[in-house]
Amino acid sequence: MTVGITRKLNRTKPHRDALFKNLVTQLFQHGTIISTHEKCKEASRLADRLITMGKKIASDDQNTTKSSSLYLPHIQSKLFLSGDNSKLISKLFNDIIPVFKNRNGGYTRVLKLESRLGDRADQSILELVDFLPVKTNSTEMGLNKGNMKLWLLINNIVKSNHLNDVKDITWKNLYKIGQFKDKETFSNDILQITKFLKLNENNTNDWNESKEIDNVNKIIEKIYSFIPNKCKTARINEFQKKGYVIMDKRPERPSPEQQLH
């Protein structure tokens, strides 16, 4: 197995380590960051490892001291914990890790953006999956940044004339987002996004709360009744129509002796 393959980013190791520490610290502090695509990918790998280590500490009830002495110093060494980030470890264990207790991986998401205007470098958004709520009472507008993928998916549904016109891949992605979230919270997130998009993007005041709640309930019902393998089945049918043969397992290779004969 090849170990240690990583992007050098045209930096020395101390500079690169400091860069990733800063990116992951800001990710845990704010829930989402924007940087070049390569930096986001490498910071994503580090953030996933740190969350996995934190979950091992949080889940080890019988031998917490041993787990803490093994993993906690490594977590602390990969973060900047001074100044505004002095309580970041507490936030990691109290706010971030409990959200991912049912996930076995994939704690971060990288979404590509348009190239940067100055040097045309590829930009991306790095965000924690399912971490930030859409609506909070602490912000002036009641909306928080984050959940970019959810915003894009709901925007597709808002622009569709009917739910049946929405593509299966959209329902599949919504199913993947909602399977680890509370249904009531997920419904509220979708409602708030729909309200913002219709009132601000469409520049209209036509908003019927009861009607939109019914529409959101239909969306939720569609999401949780979605069959994840439906898209896979559709692709298989498409390949079969073109004459391809779909096999259940990879055929066994003939042995060297059989190849000689």
Automatic annotation (TrEMBL):
The molecular function GO annotations come to: structural constituent of ribosome
Question: Which Pfam families does this entry report, sorted A to Z?
Answer: Mrpl_C, Ribosomal_L17
**One BP term from GO:** translation
Arranged from A to Z, the UniProt key words for this protein are: Ribonucleoprotein, Ribosomal protein
Q: Coiled coil: which residue ranges? A: none
The organism's taxonomy opens as: Eukaryota, Fungi, Dikarya, Ascomycota, Saccharomycotina
**The Large ribosomal subunit protein bL17m C-terminal fungi domain covers which part of the protein?**
140-251
The identity of this protein, by name, is Large ribosomal subunit protein bL17m C-terminal fungi domain-containing protein
Q: Name one GO cellular component term.
A: mitochondrial large ribosomal subunit
| NCBIfam families reported in the protein's UniProt record | L17
The organism encoding this protein is Naumovozyma dairenensis (strain ATCC 10597 / BCRC 20456 / CBS 421 / NBRC 0211 / NRRL Y-12639)
PROSITE patterns linked to this entry: RIBOSOMAL_L17
Q: Does the keyword Ribonucleoprotein apply?
A: yes
Family recorded in the similarity comment: Belongs to the bacterial ribosomal protein bL17 family.
Gene label: NDAI0B04810
